[in-house]
């Protein structure tokens, strides 16, 4: 299987999943990973963190299925499902193959924050083993969209 490099889907500050105000992510119920506290910009593209096929797709979240059977979830903000897609623009379709760095959706962290919701963006190795993830940047470090932030090694 080898090493899968995951890039930050948005520009912002790296945070541990435990900082996400949602127990499903904070307690790693769906898998290990990290979160990005995004830069507060009006419109922001959310990029694919790796190559894959778009599996689950919602205005506020998507999962990519990799060629070797792994899956990566990007959740854009917390409780953003309550916005019913308002303020989110999808640029891909389910079943579409994407490459790392491709634009998947566009959103406004400013608008989500103004709605009283957290803008944290968890990036999760679905069903992954925490021991297989190596963080490439330190918590609190500012990262660019497309910058590698995790290596996921799987046997």
TrEMBL record:
Q: Specify the superkingdom.
A: Bacteria
- Intracellular or extracellular location(s): Cytoplasm
- Domain PTS EIIA type-1, first and last residues per copy: 22-127
Task: Keywords in alphabetical order, please.
Answer: Kinase, Phosphotransferase system, Sugar transport, Transferase, Transport
Gene3D superfamilies in UniProt: Glucose Permease (Domain IIA)
Supply the Pfam families for this chain.
PTS_EIIA_1
Q: What is this protein called?
A: PTS glucose transporter subunit IIA
The scientific name of the source species is Cellulomonas wangsupingiae
Q: What is the lineage of its organism?
A: Bacteria, Bacillati, Actinomycetota, Actinomycetes, Micrococcales
């Amino acid at each position: 299987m080898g090493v899968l490099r995951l890039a930050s889907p948005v520009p912002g500050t790296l945070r541990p999943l435990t900082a996400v105000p949602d127990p499903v992510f904070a307690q790693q119920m769906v898998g290990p990973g990290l979160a990005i506290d995004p830069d507060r910009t009006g419109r922001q593209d959310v990029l694919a963190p790796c190559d894959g096929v778009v599996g689950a797709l919602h205005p506020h979240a998507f999962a990519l299925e990799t060629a070797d059977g792994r899956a990566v979830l990007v959740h854009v903000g917390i409780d953003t499902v309550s916005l019913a897609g308002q303020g989110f623009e999808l640029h891909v379709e389910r079943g579409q193959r994407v490459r790392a760095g491709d634009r998947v959706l566009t959103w406004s962290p400013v608008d989500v924050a103004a709605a009283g919701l957290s803008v944290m963006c968890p990036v999760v190795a679905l069903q992954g083993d925490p021991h297989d993830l190596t963080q490439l940047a330190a918590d609190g470090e500012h990262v660019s969209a497309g910058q590698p932030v995790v290596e996921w090694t799987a046997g």
